[in-house]
Design a protein that fits this description.
Elements lengths: L21 H6 L1 H9 L5 H10 L1 H22 L2 E5 L3 E7 L3 E9 L9 H10 L5 E9 L4 H10 L3 E3 L2 H11 L1
Antiparallel strand pairs: 1-2, 1-5, 2-3, 3-4
Amino acid sequence: MENPTPRTQYPKPKMKYSRLTKEQFEELHPEFVNFLATQSIDKEEWDKIKSEQPQIAEQELDVFSDLIWEGVLTRTEYLEHFSRNYIFLFHSRETVIHSIVLKAMDAGVDFLTKDGLQWLSDNMFTDNVEMKQGEKVFSTERNASIFELIEQGAFLSDGQLYKQIVSIIES
């Protein structure tokens, strides 16, 4: 059945986060189909929009991406960021984010390798590892702040390493 009114293009809203990758869209295909269905867009209509109004299709992809990111970020509790000599562990609460920063005092250690992580395990509570803790109130909206950390290289985690270190510190 043909849609009686053509879809109107509105000024492109600025995305809050970033567009999902092709692989992420493929993984979320059922959710995307449901998203389109809530707007009365079936496969035939979607194919038509993509070919005749690609800018509208782009907007739909952006809106869906932001919705997915918003849900993921709202549920995010723990993040980790590894670099050569540093490990940043974050526990995100509603209004604050707590961090534990581990620094290898030996410049030859590389936390991006299995050997570097073994070195950390062997040297965790020695003078070879500097550990700092901090807490910061979110200066911007919580999810936007978490997304910034992800853009800088952090990834979502189950918080296992963070929890282990906290339990040792507190005991």
